[in-house]
Design goal:
The chain is an alpha+beta fold. The chain has helices at about 5-20, 110-120, 140-145, and strands at about 60-65, 75, 95, 100-105, 125-130, 130-135, 150-155, 160, 170, 175-180, 195, 200, 230, 235-240. It contains 3 helices and 14 strands.
């Protein structure tokens, strides 16, 4: 599935059902959980907000794709040009240069995020829950198709959280990814091309035929939503293998 399309649709649905109207003149501090409408976020012209702080992942870059429980705030590897990637400000990406350890991250503790969600660089918006998360290497199907991502550790607001299962890697929409939380993929429905550092999880690309290394511990949901009840900063440490 194309997560960009899915999250856009989910966000549009959530905004349609739950978004309250918000006047562009209202600049008061807010603690609600409904961001300003996209047409009202003009952070590139706001004092205290540097549009250059919005990070755009390009070919070969790894990033943390993530969305809150209502798909109202997110980062999908794009700059905030369309005002739907509020977590793009100061997002930590990693250009993959070879096998090794890397870190990606997002933060809600920026003026750009606060303005795009509340209309005030001093406003307060509480990010709640988790709707989706994955480490994604952009354009890697072409540039590094053999890359294997292994999620090694995750911190939420500086606290290490438990990894309940093991990550796997698959190719989707031109990119290589390792799901962290993807409720659309069940443990008994992993993609046929799923692999780990030790090899393929299925024989001959048939997800009805687990390989010897597939011990049932691999999942698209390796964290608990309970660890993301409210958060500002998420950091993921991972390794890349399989490259020459």
């Amino acid at each position: 599935m194309d997560i960009r399309k899915i999250t856009a649709a989910a966000a549009a649905f959530a905004m349609l059902c739950t978004a309250a109207s918000c006047s562009s003149e209202e600049k008061k501090s807010s603690t609600n959980n409904t961001p300003k409408a996209a047409s009202e976020t003009v952070s590139e012209s706001v004092e205290g907000v540097d549009a250059n702080d919005a990070v755009d992942a390009v070919s070969g870059d790894a990033y943390l794709a993530i969305a809150d429980e209502g798909f109202t705030v997110q980062y999908l590897g794009d700059k905030d040009d369309n005002k739907s990637n509020q977590l793009s400000y100061d997002a930590g990406i990693a250009h993959i240069k070879g096998n090794g350890d890397y870190t990606v991250s997002v933060t809600a503790d920026t003026n750009g995020f606060r303005y795009d969600t509340t209309g005030d660089i001093n406003g307060e918006f509480v990010v709640k829950g988790l709707g989706f998360a994955a480490v994604i290497i952009d354009d890697a199907e072409k540039t590094m198709p053999n890359a294997v991502i292994t999620v090694k550790g995750i911190k939420v607001d500086g606290k290490d959280i438990e990894l309940k299962k093991k990550s796997y890697t698959n190719t989707e929409s031109g990119s290589v990814r390792a799901n962290i939380f993807n409720e659309w993929v069940s443990d008994d429905g992993l993609p046929a091309d799923a692999k780990c550092a030790e090899g393929a999880l299925f024989k001959d690309g048939n997800n009805a035929s687990p390989s010897d290394i597939n011990d049932g511990g691999y999942s698209a949901q390796i964290v608990s939503r309970d660890d993301f009840s409210e958060w500002k900063n998420v950091e993921v440490n991972f390794s890349v293998s399989g490259l020459e």
